[in-house]
Amino acid sequence: MKPADILSWRSAAQRHRVAAGLAAVEERLQRTVSALPGRLGEAAGSTLAAGGKRLRPLLVLLSARHTRPPVLRAASAVELVHMATLVHDDVLDQADLRRGLPTVARSYGDQMAVSTGNFLLAQAFAELSDTGDAGAVADLSEVAWGLSEGERLQAADAFRLTVTVDDYLQRCRLKTADLFAVACRLGARLSGLGDENVAALGAFGDSLGLSFQILDDILDLTGDEAVTGKRRGTDLRDGTVTLPIVLALEARPEIGPRLVTCRDNETCLEGVVEDVLACGSIEGARTIALDFMNKARALLGACPGGFERELLDKLAGSMVDRYN
Ligand code: IPE
Ligand code: IPE
Ligand code: MG
Ligand code: MG
Fold it and tell me: Is residue 12 pLDDT above 80, yes or no?
């Protein structure tokens, strides 16, 4: 199910407020990408039109007490940063499928993909700076820098068979959880909640983001491409040592050398996937993802109450059944 489907749990009036917020964000995103002329505009438009779950804007809206313009700007800015990193990530990962369609890199080439990502990133900060809240801009810019640092660390760790769970989690924080956390913080901050609530919602976003990235990394090995919209096994081909692989290497060290020798051989890689699936590491990774998800839900206890908190809880719960 899609994150926005959690709205079906609420009364019509409450549902309407969040759904109207999401629709307004979509409109802002549309306006932003259509501002760019030529092929660059076409490339940015194609990634927006391909969809996506809009999970991060939803986190902004559900961490906020209203959906006035500063909150909508933050929701739009966070999705623009996310889209920019996906467009750049697909260059780095040499991925050819995203949101069920060819990636910008595949359709328009790496150079256009880099420019498209840069444009989206610039627009994100233009959008957020219009709130007049310099602290909010500083918070998002630090996270955006961390995203590229996470990608750098991941590239440096390619095919390194000694990656630890802690190394992996540090990368997940930089690449994913910090953006979830800042989405929650910005929603809270820009709707006038106090520092304590901002920090509590940020802590929720951090744990949720770690859980989300682990589940995504499991899906790289087990997911149905028709549902995930991404090519299965991309991490393996790139030598990205994700949690299921770290755990598989602990259980079956002999898998290690085959990660390297099979890298360009699809049949050989299928054999590696079968061995990883057979050694119990998927279940191990799922347990760790569930632990982070449960921690996120427990942290909601320190967040302001109301239907938004109830929906954040449902959202966290629904994440485990992602794509089910
Ligand atoms: C993909 O994020 C990148 C990760 C952090 C795993 P999403 O799965 O939220 O991507 P879209 O926006 O729905 O395409
Ligand atoms: C996700 O990295 C985080 C980003 C900074 C884009 P992944 O490489 O795991 O994301 P997918 O699987 O391509 O969506
Ligand atoms: Mg990728
Ligand atoms: Mg992935």
Answer: no
